[in-house]
Amino acid sequence: MVAALSVILLFQLAGEVVSRAAHLPLPGPVLGMVAMVVALSLSPRLNALVRPTAQGLLQHLSLLFVPAGVGVVAHMPVLAEYGTALALALVGSTLVAIVVGAVTFTLVARLVGSRADD
């Protein structure tokens, strides 16, 4: 388990180093995750090492949201001040994402020749 966690954290560290060194607009953990997906798909041995630990982490994923919830509660004054704007931004971005997803789906369906009556 320690070895698998070390591998996961090393990929996160590598992504962080690349992101900061190259001044990329992507978060380091995202780059590390992409690198890890590539490594896991190329190395069955690494996959076998990391899989049990990753599954254990996924079983307790809800615990990882506790710090975020505490952060929200700790910043209640900011939420009170900007709550309306945040709510409008959240609803607006959700609607835009739904519309863009529907339009994209429609265009891709037309490209591949799918019909509604199929």
UniProtKB/TrEMBL annotation:
- Native species: Pseudothioclava arenosa
Q: State the UniProt keywords alphabetically.
A: Cell membrane, Membrane, Transmembrane, Transmembrane helix
List the Pfam families hit by this protein, alphabetically.
Answer: LrgA
User: Could you tell me the superkingdom of the organism this chain comes from?
Assistant: Bacteria
Record flagged with keyword Disulfide bond: no
**Chief localisation class:** membrane
Q: What protein name is recorded for this chain?
A: CidA/LrgA family protein
Which regions span the lipid bilayer?
Answer: 31-49, 61-80, 86-112
Q: What is the lineage of its organism?
A: Bacteria, Pseudomonadati, Pseudomonadota, Alphaproteobacteria, Rhodobacterales
Q: Where in the cell is it found?
A: Cell membrane
State the PANTHER family in the record: HOLIN-LIKE PROTEIN CIDA, HOLIN-LIKE PROTEIN CIDA-RELATED
- Can you list the GO cellular component terms from the UniProt entry? plasma membrane
What InterPro entries does its record include?
LrgA/CidA
Could you tell me the membrane topology recorded for this protein? Multi-pass membrane protein
Q: Which residues form a coiled coil?
A: none
